[in-house]
Design a protein that fits this description.
Chain A: Keywords: Signal. The complex is a heterodimer. By secondary structure, chain A is mainly beta. Helices cover 14% and strands 53% of the residues of chain A. Chain A has one domain: Porin (Beta Barrel), CATH 2.40.160. An eight-stranded antiparallel beta barrel of chain A has the order 1-2-3-4-5-8-9-10. The N terminus of chain A is likely disordered. Chain B has one domain. Chain B contains one helix and eleven strands; from the N terminus they run αβββββββββββ. The chains are: A mainly beta, B mainly beta.
């Protein structure tokens, strides 16, 4: 079985060529003219405001693959300057554990807030492509139903019981990276990979939900995850300074 | 290939890989943790001289719940460890097991009674729940045979925590010298 670390570093490796190809793109006039080795300053552009909304299109696919869980995720980011974006993500989902020995359902909503830092040098004022790294803080509010269970002993037979439902909260930190490419004007395609680290394992110890939308399996302290976003950007010009 | 083509290509590869990972993932993880916990017992015998204690191999021991004599385990031949036989009743706070050191002498049948607290324990979503136990007392009783013919001399509880820990022995059963 692949470990979390192996998967995570595998995808980090995939990021490298993507970032490298961006790094190779330079404006033709400056690349030809500049033969010195000193570091050039990033050109300044008069950029408009940009607010971008995205939907994770991989979740509906996962919903089809998995019978026992549902999740929907959305995101928005706003360019705050210096190649930094403020990001807000949210969604909801549900899970069911429908087995004879354990049976319960859970629903939850979640949101994440954080920032992304674009690692690419902007080529023009209209270049909004980005390869980025970022960090998030996430929180999920979970409703777990009554759980029924059955234990089986080879000598004493079966025992059944129930555990009352409960409201739970999970919160976690994430590191993330990914790309956004403006394929059509205002329309972006991009993906995120995420490493998630649960901060309150103890709160979920009694009966962790099988799946927490926005986080992943509730009984895992570290999670690898990904998103595949289709996004639309709204841009408007800044008011000229008086 | 343009920048956007390469980016799109990378994205598609990512999507395919992640879908591959999703497809490989099972609906329910396999349960890798034992869901039945046992009282791990060992058989001992006092040396003929002095107080030295020896492990003792029993020819063909039989164990079973005292209130269900039709049930039981033949623990094998020439064994002195009973690590996967004795379970506690999860519906009550005490239970008894009968113990016969040698099936050739079924009249030498003694009983070990366990008194314990039960603790419902969640293992994982893959395994569900089980019960762990904390034994607070153990008694061995005899079943009215001739005074000098007993199966068990005494029992000593060395660890009352029954939680599937495979590194400890919970109970020492001292076999009667005439058995």
């Amino acid at each position: 079985m692949l470990s979390f670390k192996k998967i995570f570093f595998f995808f980090l490796l995939l990021l490298i060529p993507a970032m490298d190809l961006f790094a190779q793109q330079q404006p033709a006039n400056t690349a030809a003219a500049d033969t010195t080795t000193h570091r050039r300053k990033a050109p300044k552009f008069d950029l408009p405001h940009q607010l971008r909304f995205g939907v994770d299109v991989s979740r509906p696919i996962q919903n089809l693959v998995y019978d026992n869980r549902r999740s929907y995720e959305f995101q928005a980011d706003y360019y705050i300057g210096n190649e930094v974006y403020a990001a807000v993500e949210g969604g909801w989902g549900s899970a069911k554990v429908p087995y004879d020995d354990l049976n319960y359902t859970s629903t939850n909503s979640f949101f994440r807030v954080g920032v992304d830092k674009c690692m690419l040098q902007r080529l023009t004022g209209k270049d909004w492509d980005m390869a980025f790294i970022g960090a998030r803080y996430g929180v999920a509010f979970i409703q777990r139903s009554d759980a029924t269970y059955t234990t089986e002993d080879p000598m004493w037979g079966m025992t059944s019981g129930s555990v009352p439902g409960k409201s739970l909260m999970a919160h976690w930190m994430e590191i993330t990276g990914g790309v956004r490419v403006e394929l059509l004007q205002h329309w972006f395609l991009g993906w995120n990979i995420r490493g998630k680290f649960l901060l309150n394992q103890g709160a979920l110890k009694e009966l962790p939900p099988a799946y927490i939308a926005g986080y992943g399996k509730g009984d895992k302290n570290t999670i690898f995850d990904f998103n595949f976003y289709v996004s639309y950007a709204i841009r408007w010009k800044k008011k000229p300074k008086a | 290939m343009t920048k956007k083509d390469r980016s799109l290509f990378t994205g598609v590869i990512m999507l395919l890989l992640t879908l591959g990972l999703v497809a490989c993932e099972t609906q329910r993880d396999p349960c890798l943790t034992p869901t039945t916990v046992y009282v791990r017992a060992g058989a001992y015998r006092f040396a003929d001289t002095g107080t030295a204690v020896l492990d003792t191999f029993l020819l063909n021991p039989i164990l079973g719940p005292a209130d269900s004599p039709q049930k039981g385990y033949s623990a094998g031949q020439n064994v002195n460890k009973f690590y996967n036989e004795i379970t506690l009743n999860p519906t009550v706070d005490s239970c008894s097991w009968y113990f016969v050191p040698d099936s050739a002498y079924l009249d030498r049948r003694d009983t070990i009674t366990f008194y314990y607290y039960r603790q419902l324990k969640f293992i994982s979503n893959a395994c569900g729940y089980t019960y762990y136990y904390s034994i607070n007392n153990v008694k061995s009783t005899r079943h009215g045979f001739a005074d000098n013919i007993h199966a068990i001399d005494s029992v000593v509880l060395s660890s009352g925590t029954i939680n599937g820990n495979a590194n400890i022995e919970n109970l020492k059963i001292y076999i009667h010298k005439n058995s």
